Amino acid sequence: MERSWMKLRDHFCLEYAEGVREFMRVTTQHAGSGNRVRCPCKNCKNCYFRQLLEVKRHLLLYGILEDYTCWIHHGETIQVADHNLAGEKTNNQHISDDQGDNIYNDIPELLEDLQRGTFAESFGETSTDQNTSGNEGEVEKFARLLNDANQELYPGCLKYSKLSFLLKMVHAKSMGNCSNKAFDMMLTLFKSALPEGETLPKLYYDVKKLLRDLGLGYIKIDACQNDCALFWKEHENLDRCPNPNCQAPRWKYSALKRKTIPHKVLRYFPVKARLQRLFMFKETSEDMRWHQEKRVQDGVIRHPADAIAWQEFDKEHDWFAQDPRNVRVGLASDGFNPFGNMSTTYSMWPVFLIPYNLPPWKCMKEPFIMLSLLIPGKDSPGNEIDIYLRPLVDELKELWLEGVETYDSYKDEKFRLHAILLWTINDFPAYGMLSGWSTKGKLACPICNKDTCSFTLKNGQK
């Protein structure tokens, strides 16, 4: 069946509607229990199961994934899809290497975008010796990733490369809360089950090194057990808390493992590289201008850019507003129990950043919400949360004052990217912690301030 309709931008034209109708006909024949199937729209990306009617509505509103030409999640076999695309089919048909990459493995395209963003400074310029030496480490990382992306999982495997299979395993580990030990056991099992010549690593430790090359790592920063300070920058080499009233030891000692273990560890996920990565993909890079170039400005609030705070900020800092690619972010944080057991008292605080340049149907979606800090428990940090926010605040200040050189894949050019934190999103107790304003007592309302209408209840008074 002809599938050129999948690339049409007009989702209400007759050709696109006919294509959606044919897709739903194929899908309905293979729908599971409850008429729920994977939704291949550009928002859901085959990650979520939805009712058939909702899938059809999503396809008409958001469009279908243009590269999902083989409908393997909706009842098609590989041979049938290949016949539909090529217009011919033989009994002994096999998928070529190129077809296998296009259907199952978009890792090479991801690495191509990553390469353009990482080495953008060399585009159209003659590289100096200093630039060349500075990029040697990045070149080596990229060469390793490219080799893993092109290396077969085992001899003759057309469905997965080594890199794509490991990424799927890590995703399953994350979604299923699998332990590191269980992951090592699965790797051992797969290595013994796959044909001779398989390329899987032996341990999860080796997989983590690969993920760091993709830019998915984080920084561990030791913290005082009483939330007084971070052992970072000027305090990095201290063994005790720098607060003279605390002086708590940094380490707890393990006689069994014979090594020092920090009492508390803050996990920091740097923001700068992830903001740059938003501009490495053409579609996302185009969307980062949406708030200025495509937003309807008719006085109706549909997006944070329509709000007074955003507009007043643009008036005060017109140099920032001149480039729509400069990023406005919001910050959200709250405590949660990571163990799922309410009988266990534990409060860990993730800190998220939301880039608001994107259109409203994307900016609050999971792929674009950035985890920046994971503040350890087991007690809430309280007013000392600002101690843990320091790495993020320092990086945001750098992005505001100096910016960072970034490659824009949509316009194929470099620009200086700046960012600003516009506001925070919290419930009232978390608002009090982040802002330093006491949300209880006489002046509990941050809006009314000293004009708060309040009175004190005496004992027994209701």
How would you describe this structure to a colleague?
InterPro entries: Transpos_assoc (IPR029480), Transposase_21 (IPR004242). This protein is of the alpha+beta class and about 450 residues long. The chain is about 35% helix and about 15% strand. The protein contains 18 helices and 12 strands. It has a 6-stranded mixed beta sheet. Strands 1-2 form a two-stranded antiparallel ribbon. A two-stranded antiparallel sheet has the order 4-5. α1 (about 15-30) packs antiparallel against α2 and α5 packs antiparallel against α7 (about 135-150). The longest helix has 17 residues, at about 385-400.
Mean pLDDT: 81
Counting structural domains, the number is 4
Order of helices and strands: HEEHHHHHHHHHEEEEHHHHHEEHEHEEEH
Biggest β-sheet, characterized? 6 strands, mixed
Shape, per Cα inertia axes: globular
Give the termini distance in whole angstroms. 73 Å
Catalogue the unreliable spans.
78-83, 85-104, 119-135
- The amount of beta strand, in percent, is 5-15%
Give the tally of β-strands: 12
How large is the radius of gyration? 26 Å
Number of helices: 18
